[in-house]
Design goal:
CATH architecture of the domain at 17-262 in chain B: Alpha-Beta Complex
Structural class of chain B: alpha/beta
Shape of chain A: flat
Distance between the termini of chain A: 44 Å
Helix content of chain A: 25-40%
Radius of gyration of chain A: 23 Å
Largest interface: A-B, 64 and 80 residues
Order of helices and strands of chain A: HHH
Number of strands of chain A: 0
Oligomer: heterodimer
CATH superfamily of the domain at 1-47 in chain A: Glu-tRNAGln amidotransferase C subunit, N-terminal domain
CATH class of the domain at 1-47 in chain A: Mainly Alpha
Shape of chain B: globular
CATH architecture of the domain at 1-47 in chain A: Orthogonal Bundle
Largest sheet of chain B: 11 strands, mixed
Chain lengths: ~100, ~500
């Protein structure tokens, strides 16, 4: 778990996250990620074999959570024109974006 | 040398209590419209220095105040917050008002709907003054990560107000609102409350609907109030708490009358004091103030018990893995397509995504997205994210065992008093480590209150954190109220 992050790792993760970093930013992030991950490595001291991960607080006894999924029924939603008003570029029916595929 | 609160300019001013204001408005002695205008005037005076408000919602506030005045004149029944001027952290949406989340990437966005908490406050008669500054996407412990500049601490303006809800805490401390809403993911209500000398509430996870909250880490995010005193904070929580069909994680548990509960005596309550929160790294003046608060609880008849929570030291690493992993997923939606900022002149869709995110996000947000993406990426998921969630369960179960023996747990809210602007901003890990006292309750989902318990020799506020089990807010309020009473309030 104490994997040292490399410049290539930072590049790959930035790509996954759709972030473009300047070389200077990459350098800072490389330093910070390594410092943080070195610190995080202390979790290895804890034996967690057989411990179920806790993803939602509602699972805990006494936390007040029950399954509250609503009935699968159609309900109202926001008006399209209100939503489109907020978009950087639209033809009123759809969001417009730069071209996706080079011909 | 001018250093601290006593020698520099101070913006501190305590608002009147909710009960005082509401009864004056109900009797017609005070017009809600006049009170609102008075608050806008004070905001105009103080905001240039403190940078608390990002935008004002004057038209909406004055219309609501006029409705309250009309109802009062007719003798119609008034809500519990009738005519009370409040401020809203700018991660909660209000229809037609800008919502920035402290980020450039949401510049220009005016949401087409209201958050549930906003709807509930207004239904109770509250007058919402505007949107309040915070760290970008609520990521930070000093309010220095806002794209719109830092907030200054009203007690000592050369110092930070804490974060991420620094503006919400500062607004109450400077009487730029009677009370405010903030959000807390790893301490973002409690720590700024401590730094600014006000009361801040972390409700149980699921107690308050998150509908209309711009998400940071969905399994940790909570909305809660700031106020000048415990009773007012309790009243506000009573208004915003309760089940909401728009948030599947909101709890259906009934909502007690928290304000009445907060006045109940504390004699006989068992109070746990965990050794792990009083060790290395705790500022001696903070320790002294918190210990005086514990003495006050003993004097009020509480049974003080030393306890041990040995998993505490693993909370920071577990928290920063869970929170950043969830953030990396939540913040994927900001891509320049549907709302907010879009980078101009990109040739392709993928360039547009990248340039928009690169120009729109600040350094701390990028750092957390990268860390979270790394922790979730192929080959690392088990070692980081899964491991952190296992540790999360260990921490939560440790709290549940502790609460079998004690009614509440008290600790410092922050190991250090408010620090100077710029003092820690160069070292992200050092900033994360200062969250040690608050991230534990965040991971466990339990509730808590930060209440002022004294000050350093130079007048910087110190807060005590009172933690209680899931849905036991009433107990946390009672204990906090007893500490407050010992301060002569």
């Amino acid at each position: 778990m104490t994997a040292r992050v490399t410049v290539d790792d930072v590049k790959r993760v930035a790509e996954l996250a759709n972030l473009e970093l300047t070389p200077e930013e990459s350098g800072h992030m490389l330093h910070d990620l390594n410092a943080i991950l070195d610190y995080v490595a202390q979790l290895n001291e804890l034996d967690t074999a057989g411990i179920a991960p806790l993803a939602q607080i509602g699972e805990l006894p006494g936390a007040g959570g029950v399954s509250l999924l609503r009935a699968d029924e159609h309900a109202g939603s926001l008006d399209r024109s209100q939503v489109m008003q907020q978009a950087p570029e639209t033809d009123q029916a759809f969001f417009k974006v730069p071209k996706v595929i080079e011909r | 040398m001018q250093t601290d609160a006593q020698t520099t300019e101070s913006f501190v001013e305590t608002p009147k209590t909710l009960a005082e204001l509401r009864s004056a408005i109900a009797s017609g002695r005070l017009k809600a419209t006049e009170l609102t205008a008075e608050y806008y005037q004070r905001i105009q005076q103080k905001n240039p220095r403190l940078n608390v408000y990002l935008s004002l919602t004057k038209e909406r506030a004055l219309a609501q105040a006029a409705r309250v005045d009309a109802a009062a004149a007719k003798g119609d029944p008034l809500g519990p917050l009738a005519g009370i001027p409040l401020g809203i952290k700018d991660v909660l949406v209000m229809q037609g008002a800008p919502a920035t989340a402290g980020s450039r990437i949401l510049q220009g966005y005016q949401p087409p709907y209201d958050a549930t908490a906003v709807i509930r406050l207004e239904a109770a008669g509250a007058v919402l003054l505007g949107k309040i500054n915070c760290d970008e996407f609520a990521m930070g412990s000093s309010n220095e990560n806002s794209a719109y500049g830092p907030v200054r601490n009203p007690v000592a303006p050369d110092r930070v107000p804490g974060g991420s809800s620094g503006g919400s805490a500062a607004a109450v401390a400077a009487n730029m609102a009677v009370a405010t809403l903030g959000t807390d993911t790893g301490g973002s209500i409690r720590q700024p409350a401590s730094f600014c000398g006000v009361v801040g509430v972390l409700p149980t996870y699921g107690r308050v609907s998150r509908y209309g909250l711009i998400a940071f880490a969905s399994s940790l995010d909570r909305i809660g109030p700031f106020a000048a005193n415990v009773r007012d904070a309790a009243t506000l929580l009573g208004v915003i708490a309760g089940h909401d069909p728009h948030d599947a994680t909101s709890s259906p548990a009934p909502v007690p009358d928290y304000a009445t509960e907060s006045d109940k005596p504390v004699a006989g309550l068992r109070i746990g004091v965990p050794a792990e929160y009083f060790g290395e790294g705790l500022d001696p003046e903070v320790r002294a103030a918190v210990e005086s608060g514990i003495d006050a609880l003993r004097a009020a008849g509480c049974i003080i018990q030393p306890i041990s929570l040995p998993t505490t030291k693993y909370a920071i690493p577990a928290y920063y893995l869970v929170a950043t992993a969830e953030a990396s997923a939540n913040l994927a939606r900001f891509d320049g397509v549907r709302y907010g900022y879009r980078s101009p002149a990109s040739a392709t869709l993928s360039d547009m995504y990248r340039h928009t995110r690169d120009e729109g996000f600040g350094a701390e947000v990028k750092r957390r997205i990268l860390l979270g993406t790394y922790a979730l990426s192929a080959g690392y998921y088990d070692a980081y994210y899964l491991k952190a969630q296992q540790v999360r369960r260990l921490l939560a179960e440790e709290f549940l065992r502790a609460f079998a023996d004690v009614d509440a747990i008290v600790t410092p809210t922050s190991p250090i008093p408010p620090f100077k602007l710029g003092e820690k901003s160069g070292d992200p890990l050092a900033m994360y480590l200062a969250d040690i006292d608050t991230v534990t309750a965040s991971l466990a989902g339990i509730c808590g209150v930060s209440v002022p318990c004294g000050a350093t020799a130079s007048g910087l506020p110190v807060g005590m954190q009172v933690l209680a089990a899931h849905l036991q807010e009433s107990t946390a309020f009672r204990v906090a109220r007893a500490v407050e009473a010992s301060q002569g309030k």
